[in-house]
Every structure is written in C-alpha cells, then in structure tokens.
Design brief:
The protein is an alpha/beta fold. It is 28% helix and 19% strand. The strands form two sheets. Strands 1-10-9-6-2-3-5 form a seven-stranded parallel sheet, covered by helices on one side. Strands 4-8-7 form a three-stranded antiparallel sheet. Keywords: Hydrolase.
Length: 232
C-alpha cells in the first residue's frame, strides 16, 4: 500500500493540517453523496484535531462518526474513548455511533456493530503506537488474524479488553488519515511507510493513505505552517 507522507513542524501543526484535511473532505463528500462517514480511533491523537476542527467549516449535521476501537469500560469512564470523543465534539450535531461495549454479550455486540458499518467509510483516522499497533490491533493478539468479522474483541491490553475494527473493516476506507507525533514513533513510522507487514499498522489496506507526522517522528524536512495538503 502506498502512503503519502507529509512532515510538519510539531504536534500542533499536525492537528491543524489534519483538521483542514478532514473539513475539506467532509464538505466534498456531503456535496457528492449527502453524507460523510468518519471512523475515529481512540487514544490522545484525535483530541487536538477535533479542537481545531471547531474552527473549520464542517457540515456536522451530515456527519456520521463511528469508533475504530473502544475499551470495555463503563459509560463516562475516563478510559473510554467515547467520553473524550463526545467532549471533543462539543455541541457539533454529528451523529455518533458508539461501540456497544457495555452489552452483556460482547461477541454479539461486536457483530451488531459490524452490521452498522457502511459499505464505504469516507475516512478512517488512525494513530500509531511505539510497538507498531494501530486501532486496537496489537502485536501477537489473535485479533490480527480475524478475517471473517468486521469488528472483534481483543485480549486484555494495558488493563482493558477492547472492541476494534478488524483489517476487513479498515479496508472499507476510501481514505486513511494517520496522525503520528513523537520521537518514540520514528521507527514504527519508518516501518509503516516502508510497507512492513510485520507490524500491525503495516497490514492496513485502504484506497488511499495520508500520513501526517511531526518532525520528531517523521523523515525529511518539516513544513512550518499548518496548511492542508493537496485535496483528496
């Protein structure tokens, strides 16, 4: 899979560039087919981007936000990705389709969430861990080999079992947007861009892939501004 890599100065520039890209793609998709379907990963990486999106022109009433992954934890728990996603969206009238991690039968809940996914996801936002994981696709977890389900459960990782989109679900993305910051991401980023499938992130397939990295993580000269890259 080919990745378009863009290196900017710092995490703030990554957030600004990502927000401008998302807003422009959202407007284009709504104009083209009336809806923008956007899957957002957990962790800290989306928060700054959503803060910057508040300054952008986004047709939120036509935006459906899905979760890429979620920790199995109670509603409102600070470890829940949903808690921070809703805080980040604020009053934006987007539809949020939350992963049902509080259901009694988690396997059935994962299957139901898979059925809720559209045939096409306009954009999937992903981060990258120092170990090369993305979403909740972690090295050596059996979930990496799931090919017959769109959503599956992981083994416990850093204190929580998780629900995650699988590789077949991520392959529904028309566009993947990677946001990668920090010197601890330099090696996994290099492996991702090289197409190294021995790291979980390297096995993600999509129609198009834009990698936004800060200078600490990225390879090559950084742009100092936070203007958006070329239109998708």
């Amino acid at each position: 899979m080919h990745h378009e890599l863009e290196v900017v100065a710092d995490p703030d520039a990554v957030a600004g560039t990502a927000a401008a890209f998302v807003a422009r793609l959202a407007r284009a998709c709504v104009q083209a087919h009336g809806r923008f379907t956007f899957a957002v990963s957990g962790g800290h990486t989306p928060w700054a981007m959503f803060a910057r999106l508040a300054r952008e022109r986004v047709p939120w009433e036509h935006v459906a936000v899905f979760q890429v992954d979620e920790r199995v934890a109670p509603d409102g728990d600070p470890d829940r990705n949903l808690t921070h996603l809703r805080e980040s969206l604020g009053a934006a009238p987007a539809e949020v389709i939350a992963m049902p991690v509080n259901d009694t039968d988690l396997d059935a809940a994962a299957a139901a969430y898979g059925r809720s996914l559209p045939e096409r996801l306009d954009l999937v936002h992903l981060g990258l861990g120092p170990d090369g994981h993305t979403a909740s696709l972690v090295p050596r977890d059996p979930v990496l080999e799931v090919s017959d389900r769109l959503v599956a459960l992981t083994a416990p990782y850093m204190g929580h079992q998780r629900m995650t989109l699988t590789y077949p679900a991520l392959a529904r993305a028309q566009q993947v947007l990677w946001r990668i910051t920090g010197a601890d991401k330099r090696e996994p980023l290099s492996r991702l861009v090289a197409g190294d499938r021995s790291v979980p992130a390297g096995r993600v397939e999509a129609a198009a892939s834009l990698v936004l990295a800060d200078a600490a993580a990225g390879q090559g000269p950084a742009r100092a501004d936070a203007q958006s890259p070329a239109s998708p």
